[in-house]
Structures are given as structure tokens and as C-alpha cells.
Amino acid sequence: MNRIKVFTFFSESHRQLLDVFTKSFPYEDGVDLTVRFLPQECASANFESSGWNRTMERKIDYIIEYLQSMDDTDMMVHADVDINFYRPFKGDLQSLMADYDILFQNDVVCLCMGFFIAKKTDKLVELMKQVRGSIDRYGNDQYAMNALIKSAGLKYGILPDRYYTFGMNRIGVWNPGINDFSVPSDIVLHHANWTVGVENKINLMNLVSSKVN
């Protein structure tokens, strides 16, 4: 049976978000979830703050380790911990992946490293190793991935907007008081990456949930 192996990680600063993630996660047959704890490398834990890239290096190390441990028939999902799930995704992702090696969440300006699904291939493992070694050169793991995947020999693409992030509204970063926006009627998940700070992430998650409900 083909399985989807879901991997997430958290540090102490994001423990609150892990609670949202695990309580909303759509546990179903053929979907395995692994959660890793990472030591706190940066004081604020905000995107690109001091120490952020050390955490991203650990993240890529774990992704490589996870890929290498998988059966060839399985697929891997990496999901950042600031995600709230609204419905099962196994069948949907398997169907979407029929003609691809890897699909990323649409981060509007680039491919998102915070949620992607991939098949295990030697080319992908090699690409992840290149990303791991290029984080400082490109600024972060996401920029490195977007630059390097073009020549990796993989068939890649973008997940539909039901794998949602606030950036898809194309009105910039979310801050408290921005309430007039829409979410997809068929939303599968919400990744709270288009805001800064854990408190804002939780507030945005709650707002999106109110719109879904």
C-alpha cells in the first residue's frame, strides 16, 4: 500500500502551534505523521532572524534522513508546524502527484518550502543536499530551493489554492485588523506563513477558521 509520510518539526517557541497542528491533523489510514523537536537556535524564532538558517539546516537534514528511510512507493509531505488542517488530503494529493515528482504550496512569489509533497528519488535527495549546502549563499532554504530546482531534472509544480496561505489574497503580509479577505470554499489546510510572530500566526489561524466555519 502506498503511504504518505508526513513530517513536521517544532522548537520551544512554536509549541503552541504544534497543539493546533496535531489536533487538526486529518489522521487516516495510509497517512503517517512524524514530529521532531528542534533546539531553539534563535531568540525570536521569526523568519530570517538570527539563527534562523541554522534551524533550516537541521530541517533539511531531517528531510534528507526521512527521504532515505522511506520505501520507494511512499510519498513524503513536509509540513511546517504553523498549519491548521480542515479536511483529509491523502486521496487528493495522490491524484495531484500522478505526473509530478514534487509539488509545492503556492507562496505567490515563489515555491513554498513550508508545505510540499514529493516522491522519493535519487535526484530529490541530491537536490536537498544542494539546498542544505546553499542556504547561506541564497539567504534561506526557500530561496535556495527555488534557484536550484530548475536544473535538478525533476518534474515540479504548484498545489492548488485549496492548500491555502494568506499571501494568495495578494494584499501583503497579514496584521491584526485586516479582516476583509476570502478563503477557498474547498480549503484543505491553512499555512500561517504570511504574518510575523507566533501570536499573529495563532490570531490569523483563528480568523481563517472563523471564515471557514
What features would you describe in this structure?
It is a single chain. With 213 residues, the protein is of the alpha/beta class. It has helices spanning 15-24, 52-69, 90-96, 122-138, 141-148, 198-212, and strands spanning 4-10, 31-37, 75-79, 83-85, 102-106, 111-119, 156-158, 163-165, 189-191. It is 35% helix and 21% strand. The chain has a 6-stranded mixed sheet with strand order 2-1-3-6-5-7, sandwiched between helices. Helix 1 (15-24) links the parallel strand 1 (4-10) and strand 2 (31-37). Residues 44-50 have low confidence and may be disordered.
Any chance you could write out the topology, listing elements then pairs?
Layout: E1 4-10, H1 15-24, E2 31-37, H2 52-69, E3 75-79, E4 83-85, H3 90-96, E5 102-106, E6 111-119, H4 122-138, H5 141-148, E7 156-158, E8 163-165, E9 189-191, H6 198-212
Parallel strand pairs: 1-2, 1-3, 5-7, 8-9
Antiparallel strand pairs: 3-6, 4-9, 5-6
Helix pairs in contact: 2-4, 4-5
Question: Can you give me a brief rundown of this structure?
Answer:
The chain is α/β, with parallel strands linked by helices and 213 residues long. It contains six helices and nine strands; from the N terminus they run E-H-E-H-E-E-H-E-E-H-H-E-E-E-H. A hairpin with a 4-residue loop joins strand 5 and strand 6.
